[in-house]
Backbone:
């Protein structure tokens, strides 16, 4: 199914420089001779250190209640402030993706994840503080305790349970989540 051959390619976003362009000094020895090695890495001409630019891990929680409604949150912060989103966020160092999605769900909704199953992944570019952060967004189907106890917290301005047939992908502000919603709606339709 995934036999396609993909060539890794770094993208330049509009008028923004390539993400590796912001790294001017070797993080190991401090040398200014930190030069392009290839499209995914830089190499220090003095100490030989090679830095590979890899995406940051992020999680997205797909939570469905007993009425077959999807839990959505409204973003309280930029980027895409005020648009719909699914609970989730960046992984912390030394935590698994499953731990990360459970932590993010709890931080944003107060719900405790009992079980999560990996669904799929979508690459994303997340604008943050003037930088484009390349991410790999990992989508998980999460079963939670007490869906009626959900409340908006942290990065969530508000939340709602929305029936699948009323979900509008264009209302989701982050491209990867919008693509995920389209994919999830197809999965939900095929399940019926």
Residues:
């Amino acid at each position: 199914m995934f036999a396609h051959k993909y060539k890794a390619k770094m993208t330049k976003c509009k008028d923004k420089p390539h993400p590796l362009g912001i790294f001017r000094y070797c993080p190991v020895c401090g040398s200014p001779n930190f030069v392009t090695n290839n499209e995914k890495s830089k190499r220090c001409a003095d100490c030989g250190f090679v830095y590979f630019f890899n995406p940051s891990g992020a999680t997205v929680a797909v939570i469905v209640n007993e009425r077959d409604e999807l839990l959505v949150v409204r973003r309280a912060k930029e980027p895409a402030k005020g648009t719909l989103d699914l609970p989730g966020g960046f992984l912390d160092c030394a935590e698994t993706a499953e731990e990360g999605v459970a932590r993010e769900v709890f931080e944003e909704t107060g719900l405790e994840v009992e079980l999560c199953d990996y669904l799929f992944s979508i690459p994303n570019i997340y604008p943050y503080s003037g930088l484009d952060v390349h991410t790999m967004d990992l989508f998980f189907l999460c079963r939670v305790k007490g869906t009626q106890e959900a409340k908006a917290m942290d990065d969530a301005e508000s939340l709602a349970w929305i029936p699948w047939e009323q979900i509008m992908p264009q209302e989701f502000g982050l491209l990867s989540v919008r693509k995920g919603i389209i994919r999830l709606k197809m999965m939900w339709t095929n399940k019926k």
